Amino acid sequence: MNTLEEIQNLIAAGRFEYSLEKSNQYLRKAADIALGSTKAPNFSYLFCLLGKEAYKELALNDLRPGVRTDLWFKGLNALTWGKSPELHLYASSYAELAVDICRDTFSDLPSSKRHALLKQAKDLVNKSINETKEKEYKAICLARKSAIIRLQAIGLATPERLRFLLKASRCSTLARRLSQQAAIILECGLVEWALARLQNNDKKYVAKLRSAEELLNLDVVKKCDLGPFALSRFYRLTYRYYDACMTYPQLTESATNRRRILREAAIFAESAIQLSNLHYPSDLVEEHLEKAMNLLETAISSGYRSAREVIALAYIRCLREGVSAGTTALLDLSPERGKLSWEHVLTMLSEAQADDLPAEGFALGVTDSASLTRLGTFSYRFLNNLGLAEALYRTAVRMDPHDPIAQTNLARFLVKRGDPADLQEAKRVIQLAQSFADRRFSWWRPVLLELSKQEGAMVASYGHESGSCTKEQRSFTGAQHSRQIRRHYNKLKSCEDEQYRGYELESLIYAVSLLSCGFQRPSYRMTRPLVGKIHQIDTHIEHRGKSYRCECKWQKDKVSYDDMLKFADKIDAAGVSGLFISMSGFADLAINKSRELRSQKAIILVDGDEVDLVMTGMVHFDDLLNAKRRAFDSSSETYYPVRVSPGDG
Fold this sequence. Notes:
Elements lengths: L2 H14 L3 H18 L8 H16 L3 H14 L8 H17 L7 H21 L3 H18 L5 H21 L3 H15 L5 H15 L2 H4 L4 H11 L3 H7 L10 H6 L1 H13 L4 H20 L5 H15 L1 H8 L11 H9 L5 H4 L9 H13 L4 H14 L4 H14 L2 H17 L7 H12 L26 H11 L5 H17 L5 E2 L2 E5 L4 E5 L1 E5 L2 E8 L7 H10 L5 E7 L5 H9 L6 E5 H8 L5 H15 L14
Parallel strand pairs: 5-6, 6-7
Antiparallel strand pairs: 1-4, 2-3, 4-5
């Protein structure tokens, strides 16, 4: 075995090792050998690149902010141990590490130095792009430049951020024209995701989000080291929790980078917790909670005791083992486990300044807004300590005034308390949550609805416009924004013409599926010449690999047994399912008939309460369909009720 292979094997062993101490031993040895080899007669720049990788892994292993920063810069310094034979090697490696350093929220590097580092990296890749002739090398430098610009865009005002991201998009698109490397396609997907939020209507937002998902789902991306983590994070942050769980890499004996799987464990765990909050089938929830608990316990014992992991483990233990087990887990937030009670720990957090507690040895990230709002919900939901919950929510909002989850949780707390002064404050806070929220974030909607009820009138921004709707009015023809769908739906509620309402419901379902699902087709007629029948199909939807023919009814009576038989006759092709939407619900005989047919064809039932959740934006249509499909696939239930359940921060 030559020296290069020895260093590579040591780095691989460091990534594979559960023990933090042993992992660091392997990585330090790799760094030392790499440094020593740069002075040897047979010098290769690969020694510098491997030294950089060793220090990068050491930095990610260390939870001391100052030490972590020092290790990052030792990695940058490793790139100067020897002269690179070609500029692109040094420039692309420097830029890659600079982006990793500036994305690290646990290091104590000041923002001014992060900006300077990104600027220096950008100047380097620009020089390399201008001088490099080889297409593959130019492509990777363009992708690095895109990542730098994408990071520089964070925190800018919307017009300026859009300008930066469009520039990043041009770089990543050009890179992809030159090369189809996994890292380049991954960068294209991340740019599309970043651009999605800045689109000026829901239709464009969904198109960008779908484009990002398609890129992140390409086999070449999913097979690279970072791909599965990026895809799972994408689903987690777009509130598709089941998909986040299903795409997260499994901790198996064959996993080559165990420490990365453990380091990112909170992505899986938080998604599993939300499956419980959203009332997914109990056996599915228990399966994922058990996996999450095992993963978190392994992560913490392997040295990753950050606040995010500790809080997620406390949640899961409360759900599975009771409050006592959860509060015991919370003690890992403190450097003096066993000496402080959980009440004392949480009280200290609710009174903390941003930099106080990590400097005293508390878990990294403990004063982040996301951690504090989760602790507030933990105090409210499991400990029934309302004063502590409020203090933690307020601290979370103070730490990040732009966090819509923290604002929603505080507003929900104030609405439940219900004092007039609280309702006034809740109205202001929930308006801020709306303005800062991603389009797929809808937790604030039920809070706003409850606030409206308590005030005795609907809030105008919620979209419940008054006015009647008649068939003489113009029919609904489509929407760029979900609020247009909501407005027309609310008017239809006062319409007494059942036939007209039914036709318009078809159009609304088609429109809402356009803003959330894949392929759709509006109402059409299907001819079956062999049996001499012509069927009316209200809408055809393709969603996550499944094809649905839809029937929409908005009438006073519940769907009958005969109605169900007629619809079942339309589901006559292999691989095609049925989606029956009835605003007035279903008679018991109709429900039983759908269950009798489930061995032959899948018929999923959606009632008026569920349509109302979708049309008012409390539940996304694709999430509704996904939850119902999972229930059918796992337990053969055709009528699985989906009701709004506000998420916990």
